[in-house]
Design goal:
Layout (H helix, E strand, L loop, with lengths): L9 H9 L10 H16 L6 H18 L10 H10 L15 H24 L6 H10 L8 H11 L5 H7 L5 H28 L7
Helix pairs in contact: 1-2, 1-9, 2-3, 3-5, 5-6, 5-9
The chain binds the ligand CCCCCCCCCCCCC/C=C/[C@@H](O)[C@H](COP(=O)(O)O)NC(=O)CCCCCCCCCCCCCCC.
Length: 214
């Protein structure tokens, strides 16, 4: 996985999401977190204006990595095993924040909602044309997804930061996957696995009534 800025290649990051599913269609925690870490590295190349976003993502990734290096690590091997372990042992605050403010279930839910934003944003980036403004694509995908879970002050800060995004062609070049056309083609290849991971997680959380965890 390329995390250094000069060898940075978003293709590797998005391909990591492809390796998240095992043969039982369960989502493997380690590559899932690895994918997020790669996205955060990319976000860090977009400037300090996004540091409040990357800090929050990093702290959530860290919570999950701590579970993966704890005595309970085997229970956190997949999203499915995490849900069943935490629910069975009463380790999730279901109605309001209490004893378990940083459960795996609520932490992954935040990343899962952000994955929906990513899916919408990448899809609009892929299907837009050279006239499109990245900032507006980003604002639209944010408003259709994550914004619904954020208070006014975060929405305001996020929207202001989006205006600092580079133009579409520069953005696609920054992905370091070759020409604009190659970058667009790569998005088309990577998106189905992101959609699949999102859909499987959404169904898992819906099945256990976990979509509104505080
Ligand atoms: C192209 C760059 C745009 C990046 C925009 C990302 C979406 C904006 C998210 C704004 C989050 C603001 C920070 C605070 C969030 C928290 O309040 C909030 C709730 O947490 P809590 O319940 O523990 O309090 N946290 C969250 O919703 C989780 C946010 C996680 C955001 C991860 C974003 C990673 C972005 C990676 C960008 C990669 C772009 C790749 C494009 C080719």
């Amino acid at each position: 996985m390329a995390h250094g800025d000069d060898t940075y290649n978003l293709k590797e990051v998005l391909v990591t999401f492809k390796s998240c599913l095992n043969d039982k269609q369960e989502i493997l925690m380690d590559p899932y977190l690895e994918g997020w870490k790669g996205l955060v590295s990319f976000l860090n190349t977009m400037g300090a204006i996004f540091s409040f976003v990357s800090k929050d993502a990093v702290s959530k990734i860290q919570i999950m990595e701590d579970f993966r290096s704890s005595d309970q690590k085997d229970h956190y091997e997949t999203l499915q095993s995490m849900v069943s372990y935490e629910l069975k042992n009463g380790l999730v605050d279901l109605k309001k924040t209490g004893v378990y403010p940083t459960s795996g279930c609520r932490t992954i839910l935040r990343l899962h909602r952000a994955l929906h934003w990513l899916q919408l944003f990448l899809e609009s980036l892929r299907t837009s044309n050279s006239e499109s403004r990245t900032s507006l694509l980003c604002i639209d995908s944010y408003n259709a997804s994550l914004a619904n879970y954020h208070p006014w002050i975060i929405r305001k800060a996020a929207t202001m930061a989006f205006y600092a995004l580079p133009a579409r062609e520069t953005f696609l070049e920054n992905m370091k996957v070759g020409t604009i056309e190659e970058a667009v083609a790569m998005l088309g290849e990577a998106l189905p696995s992101i959609v699949q991971i999102y859909d499987i997680t959404q169904a898992l959380y819906a099945q256990h009534n976990l979509l509104d965890l505080p």
